[in-house]
Amino acid sequence: MKGNKRALAALTAALSLLLCSCTSTSSISAPHTVTLIAKSTQTEFWLSVFAGAEAAATEYNLDLNIVGPDAEEDYETQNQMVDKAVQAGTEALVFSAIHYDNNADAIDAAAQKGVKIVAIDSNVDSQAVSTYIGTDNYAAGQMAAQAALARVEGELHVGIINYDISSANGQERERGAVETFTRSGRAQVVSVINTLAESHIAQTDTTALLTQHPEINVLLAFNEPTSVGAAKAIENRDAADDIFLVGFDSNVRTVDGLQNGTVDALIVQNPYAMGYLGVESAYKLLTGQSKQVAPTVDTSTQIVDRNNLFSIDSQKALFAFEQRKESS
Predict the structure, then answer these.
(1) DSSP string across 160-215
(2) I need a surface site. Which of 23, 79, 115, 303 has the fewest CB within 10 A?
(3) Can you count the helices (H) and strands (E) in the chain?
């Protein structure tokens, strides 16, 4: 009897330890919740961001929610998405601001409730942002201007197709380009327009710009939809080759334009890295590794033109999302 009692006691103790261990493991492995709020869900740029974010969420066992408005100008919907995510219990926001100023209150309110804030692609006017991950947009604007200056001889008469005037990254790109052109001594910025980040509207506005200023021989377009719109506008001209177009980002239409001559250079960002590093940073902030999170992370940017279009590095940059889809 004593032996049986001892065995029963030992079994009970073992089961208790096992239950405690299971309970502890379950609580430790419960995934943190992160919400990525994008500027849009409609472009190849953002699909690549989402792919990077999802890869990081899988690697770090995070519950990731991805949302964004239909239009890249709709900061009010973004603010509503921030509030909804906080109410649903998100622990961190990976956020790309449509409006540098008007998104700030929503982000501050989220941070006051303990939510960690990571900014990607386009920053917001909030001290609550722990890190900004994205392109050095001023340098990218310089790169776009330099691409034209290095490839177009003589006087440059420049038109700039920018998107929402309240978006921090577009304004920084414009500033970098304009200052570079001014310093060159042989370029004049004839006109700068702000259009909607929708290719058909950008096409209409670019056509109107070229009609109003026929002297323009260089166009810069600062994101994917404006670049597609500008390329379409040039295609419809009688003399498409009289305009040198520098666009941004990778899109099937603009990559085709590099081959047929309507696009002359693309400034290609690294949206996959923005998504991956944004979610990875959120994980580090939530797990006590904030010292490993830098205030600013500059993701890579490069120039692709017809001379290097088919190089391995250019193909990886242009088709990063497709390559990762095929390998997954």
Answers:
(1) EEE--TT-HHHHHHHHHHHHHHHHHSSEEEEEEEE--S-HHHHHHHHHHHHHH-TT
(2) 23
(3) 12, 12
Give residue-wise pLDDT tens across range 182-234. Answer: 999 999 999 999 999 999 999 999 999 999 999 999 999 999 999 999 999 99
Residue 32 has what DSSP assignment?
P
Can you list the positions of beta strands (E) in 241-321?
244-248, 265-268, 296-298, 302-305
Provide the residue type at 130 as one letter.
Answer: S
Angle 199-212/224-235 helices, nearest 10 degrees? 50
Neighbours of 179 (CB within 10 A): 14
Measured CA distances, 55 to 52, 130, 271 (Å): 5, 21, 13
Q: What is the pLDDT of residues 31-63, one digit of tens each?
A: 999 999 999 998 999 999 999 999 999 999 999
Structure tokens at 270: 């690294």
Residues 46 and 67: beta-carbon distance below 8 Å: no
pLDDT tens digits for range 79-114: 999 999 999 999 999 999 999 999 999 999 999 999
Q: Which two tokens stand for residue 278?
A: 């944004």
